């Protein structure tokens, strides 16, 4: 979680290229019980507050509510998968989570239009503009979508791959270590002793 928090340092990664999507999805998959919810969300909250302080923004921003709804959706999606799911299924789930996050946050930006963007008319054309072009003066939203999708896939693949590798390297519970060939078995009689 500390390494994840460090990935949120401003300027470290391109816009919307983040470990957030993969972490929240995999948190839902791999953390048990309540930890799947509180650990990723509290890490997000602490880093969001730190970022708002860094940028001199108000500690509470309305868009954060929408982001947290999307974060909850990512964790909930992860909860539908099992740690035993194969790597490709987990990767697909992480990509689906990134798409879900993008659609939730961009639809909310179009619906609530906090900056009164004239392009975001309340019709299908305005929604499509919000999902593809965005508003003037900023990178086009399809670029954010590309970065969201790439980073969601990359970090989900890395997290799930690391978990699969660590599970493969752990000794299995039902495996018993074989005795070394030069040692006598524990129940063998010692030299000079009669077996009872």
Topology of helices and strands:
Elements: H1 2-6, H2 20-30, H3 35-55, H4 62-79, H5 87-112, H6 124-132, H7 141-169
Please give a structural write-up.
This protein starts with a helix and ends in a 27-residue tail after the last helix. Helix 2 packs across helix 5, helix 4 packs antiparallel against helix 5 and helix 5 runs antiparallel to helix 7. The chain contains seven helices and no strands. The chain is globular. Helices cover 61% and strands 0% of the residues. The mean pLDDT is 85. It has 196 residues and is mainly alpha-helical. It has one domain: Arp2/3 complex 21 kDa subunit ARPC3.
Key descriptive features of the protein:
Arp2/3 complex 21 kDa subunit ARPC3; 196 residues; mainly alpha
Uncertain runs: none
In whole angstroms, how far apart are the ends? 59 Å
Q: Give the averaged pLDDT, no decimals.
A: 85
CATH class (first level) name? Mainly Alpha
- How many H/I helical runs? 7
* Helix and strand sequence: HHHHHHH
Rg calc? 24 Å
Total strands: 0
The proportion of residues forming helix, as a percent range, comes to 55-70%
Q: Main β-sheet: number of strands, strand sense, barrel status?
A: none
Based on secondary structure, the structural category is mainly alpha
What's the domain count? 1
CATH architecture: Orthogonal Bundle
Inertia-based shape: globular
In short:
With 196 residues, the chain is mostly helical.
């Amino acid at each position: 979680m500390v390494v994840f928090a460090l990935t949120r340092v401003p300027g470290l990664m391109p816009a919307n290229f983040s470990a957030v999507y993969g972490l929240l999805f995999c948190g839902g998959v791999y953390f048990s019980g309540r930890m799947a919810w509180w650990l990723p969300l509290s890490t997000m909250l602490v880093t969001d507050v730190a970022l708002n302080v860094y940028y001199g923004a108000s500690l509470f921003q309305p868009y954060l509510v929408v982001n947290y709804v999307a974060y909850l959706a990512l964790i909930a999606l992860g909860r539908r998968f099992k740690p035993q799911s194969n790597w490709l299924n987990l990767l697909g789930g992480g990509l689906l989570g990134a798409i879900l996050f993008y659609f939730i946050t961009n639809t909310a930006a179009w619906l609530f239009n906090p900056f009164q963007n004239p392009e975001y008319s309340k019709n299908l054309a305005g929604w499509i503009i919000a999902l593809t072009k965005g508003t003037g003066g900023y990178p086009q939203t399809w670029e954010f979508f590309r970065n969201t999708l790439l980073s969601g896939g990359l970090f989900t693949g890395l997290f799930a791959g690391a978990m699969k590798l660590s599970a493969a390297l752990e000794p299995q519970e039902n495996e018993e270590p074989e005795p070394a060939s030069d040692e006598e078995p524990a129940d063998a009689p010692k030299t000079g002793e009669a077996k009872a």
